[in-house]
Amino acid sequence: MKKPQFPLSFYCLISSFLLLPVVKAGSNTSTENRVVTAAVVSEAAIAAEESAAMESRAMAIYEELGLDRLGLNQKAMIYAYKGFQKLAKSGKLDNTEILTVCDFTQPSTSKRMYILDIRDMKVLVNTFVAHGKNSGLKYAERFSNRHESLQSSLGFYVTKNTYFGKHGLSLRMAGVDRGFNDNAESRAVVVHGANYIGANRLGAAYMGRSFGCPAVPQHLSAKVIKLIKNGTCLFIYHPSQNYLKRSTVLNG
Q1: What SS3 string covers 163-174?
Q2: Which residues of the chain have pLDDT under 50?
Q3: Which residues neighbour 155 within 8 Å (Cβ) at sequence distance 6 or greater?
């Protein structure tokens, strides 16, 4: 039996019909991919511009307040300001005028806590601050978020309310860097005064250490706590690449 014969034009028509959806789909997919790529590039460009602007502003504050002369690490200020701005933008801060930086690149014998008034451009307090007993001797080198580690926890905190405990007036803090300091409240990591940190200990090989709390000199504790309580940002800095690459505040 002979196969039916069709004119060439019939086969061309069928071929065109079969190919048309494929070409159309490919065209749409390509266009969609270009749109998505452009959006990603645009978002990345905006993020880069915002980061550059925050870094520029951080450096302007750093220079105007003479923080280099007070020993503050330049990168500590940049990271602190970027995180501070992100927390403020997300509505996590009740007070967006005060920024506290604890610079753990410095030894405990240095005044490495800086309380800054960003609005009026003032250094309100520059004093000593303790690190955890198991974080190191003169320098803080090891950090943990674990209970009973007796180590300091890096990252961003939002201060809360005050209370009277075994160290007198103390200040609760919420750790907002997931995985790095979010156990702060359950670990009872708070700001409090202590006689083992301060100028009276400068003759010793190293300052006294806490169980992980950023303890300050006893005679200044009430002033420090009053300045930074109720929703301000406190940042504990160390150039740990593990922290800087994985911080949920800095990289969120």
Answers
A1: EEECCEEEEEEE
A2: 1-4, 6-25
A3: 175, 176, 177, 180, 181, 235, 236, 243, 247, 249
| Cα–Cα dist 77/82, whole Å | 9
User: Hey, what's the torsion of the CAs at 207, 177, 39, 30, to 10 degrees?
Assistant: 120
- What is the predicted pLDDT for the residue at 44? 75
Dig out the tokens for 18 from the structure. 């079969």
Q: Are 193 and 167 in contact (CB under 8 A)?
A: yes
CB burial of residue 71 (10 Å; 0-12, 13-18, 19+): middle
pTM of structure? 0.83
190 near 170, Cβ under 8 Å?
A: yes
Angle, in degrees to the nearest 10, between helices 74-89 and 8-64: 120
Query: Strand 216-217 to strand 190-194: parallel, antiparallel, or no bridges (unpaired)?
Result: parallel
- The predicted pLDDT at position 206 comes to 86
Three-state secondary structure of 136-187: CCCCCCCECCCCCCCCECCEEEEEEEEEEECCEEEEEEEECCCCCCCCHHHH
CA distances from 144 to 8, 101, 141, 163, 165 (A): 78, 19, 10, 25, 24
